[in-house]
Amino acid sequence: MHPLKINSIPDRRCAILMAMVWLLATLLASPQLYTTKTVPFAYGNDTYYNCREVASRDYSSNYSLVIFIITFLLPFFTLLYVYGKIGFRVFKRKIPGYKTSIF
Length: 103
What we know:
The chain is built from three helices and two strands. The protein is α+β, with helices and mostly antiparallel strands and 103 residues long. It has two domains: 7-55, no CATH class; 56-94. Strands 1-2 form a two-stranded antiparallel ribbon.
């Protein structure tokens, strides 16, 4: 099985789509490089480090909302629409054969 050797999608277009997916993933994750820091905290006599988002409250909530929309809501409604269209077409079709047949 060779997933990149699909006859319906040319090699150049497949490479461009893969590059766009990687670019989008990198762009979505890049703000984490600037907002995530290790913060020391004391517990008893020991010092531990916690990796957390250190950003303003407005930025953090806006970023989380954008990520939620792009990574969850957009794919969810796309799948809902596509499966709805498939289901509508399948149930709209007439079943071949005679109505009196058992199977």
